[in-house]
Amino acid sequence: MRRVVFNQKGGVGKSSITCNLAAISAARGKRTLVVDLDPQGNSTQYLLDKPASELKDTVADLLEQTVAFTVFNRRPDEFVHATPFDNLFVMPSSPDLDFLERKLEAKHKIYKLREALHKLGETFDAIYVDTAPALNFYTRSALIAAERCLIPFDCDDFSRQALYNILNEIRDLQEDHNRDLVVEGIVANQFQPRASLPRKLIGELIDEGLPVLPVRLSSSVKMKESHQCREPLVHMAPKHALTKQFENLFGVLHGEKVELEPLAD
Q: Does domain 2-253 correspond to CATH entry 3.40.50.300?
């Protein structure tokens, strides 16, 4: 399964959701890969404990060879790094993605990521793609390459307006490039169940028929601690309430029966 996590708005938890779902997948015995397409490299640093600028053999190196004049290109799996966690791997980001983007666009290489992920699908059971907060060349490439798309939503009115734009963009891309892409759902992140505005916004989105997933991810300092420790929640705090919410979200995405938390009145 190739899943992309995307929102054009920054600060909505894309990297946290990507890495924690991937970590749960790996903890359940699935060989799991995170592809970090965000030049900021948050997923890379979270899982490898190194800034992307210090790493070699990155996703930028993989894509750059598609526009280089070389006879023998290296295999996609040669750009994959093992993490300290069993079954969990990363194809790291690089600041060079910013400089490479125009060259890739000019050479019409938007389908090269899809080719690479199809090949990696022979080795990995699950692939999660983290994206930058922009509908740029790399994000479009990821949406073309993916089978599923998750959209984090942080429960404010600005995010709501951005959400409509995102869904329209995805519909256009589905029609033109990837009819197999499914919007798997909208994930309410940093949710405060006792606050009226988040509950009101989520209720209105559901009433509009939008695919809001039934699991809400709470706002918690534990996530910041997880970032600081460079350890996904399933390893750092396996019994924490937020960890359970991530496990429930994973279960919903995979058709499992889960016991959902009741929302506050």
A: yes
Q: Residue 258: is it exposed, middle or buried by C-beta count within 10 angstroms (0-12/13-18/19+)?
A: middle
- Placement of tokens 């999660």 in the chain: 128
pTM across the whole model = 0.94
Q: Pairing between strand 2-5 and 126-130?
A: parallel
Q: What is the pLDDT of residue 62?
A: 96
125: which DSSP letter? S
In angstroms, how far apart are the furthest CA atoms of the chain? 64
Q: 217-252 burial by CB neighbour count: b if 16+ within 10 A, else e? A: bbbbebbeebbeeebbbbbbbeebebbbbbbbbbbb
157: tokens are 């009115």
User: Which tens digit of pLDDT belongs to each residue from 164-178?
Assistant: 999 999 999 999 999
What 8-state DSSP symbol labels residue 142?
H
203-216 pLDDT, tens digit each: 999 999 999 999 99
Q: Where are the domains of the chain?
A: 2-253
Long-range contacts of 116-121 (CB under 8 A, 24+ apart): 116/62, 116/76, 116/145, 117/2, 117/35, 117/76, 117/145, 117/146, 118/145, 119/75, 119/76, 119/77, 120/33, 120/76, 120/77, 120/80, 121/2
- 126: region left, alpha or beta (phi > 0 left; psi from -120 to 50 alpha): beta
Task: From residue 50, give the alpha-carbon distance in Å to each of 10, 43, 60, 171, 236.
Answer: 22, 10, 16, 36, 18
